[in-house]
Amino acid sequence: MGEARVYFSGGIWLKIGRWRILIDPVGRPVEQPDITLFTHGHIDHISGAPYIYHLTPMFASGATKRLIEIRYPRLAGDSVIPLPLGFELRLGDLLIKTYNAGHIVGSVQYLIEHRDVRIGVTGDLNMVRSLTERPAELLADLDLLVIEATYGSSFYVFPDRDDLYAGIERWAREVLAAGGIPVLVGYALGKAQELTALSSRIIGIKPYVTREVERYNRVFESYRGVRLGWRSLKNNAVKELKGEDSIIVTSSRGFGRLKNLLRLYGIRYEPAYFSGWALSREYPGRGFPLSSHADYRMLMGYIEDARPRKVLTVYGFRRSLAGDVRRKLGIEAEPIEIV
Predict the structure, then answer these.
(1) Confidence (pTM)
(2) Are 3 and 16 contacting, i.e. CB atoms less than 8 angstroms apart?
(3) 53, 83, 242, 321: which sits with the fewest CB atoms below 10 Å from its CB?
(4) With respect to CATH, is domain 161-288 assigned 3.40.50.10890?
(5) Does the structural domain 5-155+293-335 have CATH classification 3.60.15.10?
(6) Among residues 16, 67, 41, 254, which one has the least CA distance to residue 33?
């Protein structure tokens, strides 16, 4: 790939030609990038923003820009420059284009071109259609693909999405029939929007959502132009849930506070936790492997379809995935260099 160098140091660095590009920074960078790109709004991909906003132009999708501003209010305004999906940004001899990543609202992949070199960076991605996200688009004809490997072990193959939805619905109806309240626990950003839609559209009950989930539901609805269907759960309204067919959607942090109120008012509830890690972890309640990430099979399928000249894996099971790409697909691959 000639002049390009890619490595991880508090984020993904791409150095190509005269450009120093930092993607998804976490913490304070050791050097100053020329531009910074954010793939999506989860905290483990944006936590470097407060340290560099005054040093470098920062780019993200419109929804991710808003999520960064919610997390870091002092960055509101012009600190982050929005890039619409499919937009081409040309900076001299550098071209950057955004593609849907299918992970959460506003999540994008980046295609970065410099002269005759094409590099794709997926960020976190998902290749299945869900109630809230379209599948990730495929980046093809690449010299280098930098792909996430959160679930890059062959152990992590998730059930069919529709089968998962059906199983969640059966569990929730059983809890309701027994006089309890199903409490759906997942990440406030991303997973909670899918769980909100599942409750309102499939189970047929508009769920109550806790404050953190409400905040991100509003961002989702604003940028997608659709209503998820939910009700705001205020602390002083929890006691009113007794005797009502209700469902609650909350984050793990929100559930820590909520369960004390439910116990205080003698309200029976049963929690379920939603994460790809449910395949390998025990939860204090029911666990469903509903993930906003691609599983192993999807990652391998993406790489096989994209047929890049080289693959770098990042996050999670990066060594395992890189090894399987070499052995099973015959594509040059290695885990990203950590500096």
Answers:
(1) 0.96
(2) yes
(3) 242
(4) yes
(5) yes
(6) 16
